[in-house]
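Issue 218. Parser rejects a valid record. Input:
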Amino acid sequence: MTKVLQLASGKLVTADNPDDYVYLTTGKVVETLTQQNNALQLSSGKLIGVTGPTPPVPGYPDSDVTVGVFSPSSGSLLWAMLDEEPYSDSDYVSGSVADGTNEEFEVGIENCAGNGTATLRVRLKSDLGEFNNLDCLIRLEQGGVDKGNNGVETLTAAYDEYTASCSGITDYTDLTVYVEFQSPESTNETLTGYCSWIKVDSA
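Output the parser choked on:
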């Protein structure tokens, strides 16, 4: 027997046919459904038809929130350089950071799912400076509230993965990732920071 889920609107959907829609009683489509393991996931990120812990669904950039001085290696969208799986360092975001200043960008994260925790993964590098390389700060935010960051780390001249442990997440549909490049004072030079990949590994 096929299991059928009846929504409050009276609409019937089944796990056998997840490419369906959630309708208001007026017939207006408000959300789409996709299959996630043994559950149906609404486009808002909410999982229905599943018991126990929510199966984790990773999130990737899907919008630009703050661009600042940064530009993509191709096209016009920062997030489109950062969302591939597996990662690729051949497309990236870059921006110049003057002596003693900080520059940042922020991207929105597509709907993912989890149980309140996640690991933020970001691939970064810096120009090799004569005195110092750039430092970095990465942070996962929910509604503008810090859910986890890496502190401040010094970048190398080759891409490496930087991580931050995140917790207290209650709304996986309202996540953004903030990336800041910091130039130590007295470097006496302008350096370029690069970012090639961002992933929110939910748990």
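Fixed in the parser; the record now loads. Residues 23-27 have pLDDT under 50 and may be disordered.
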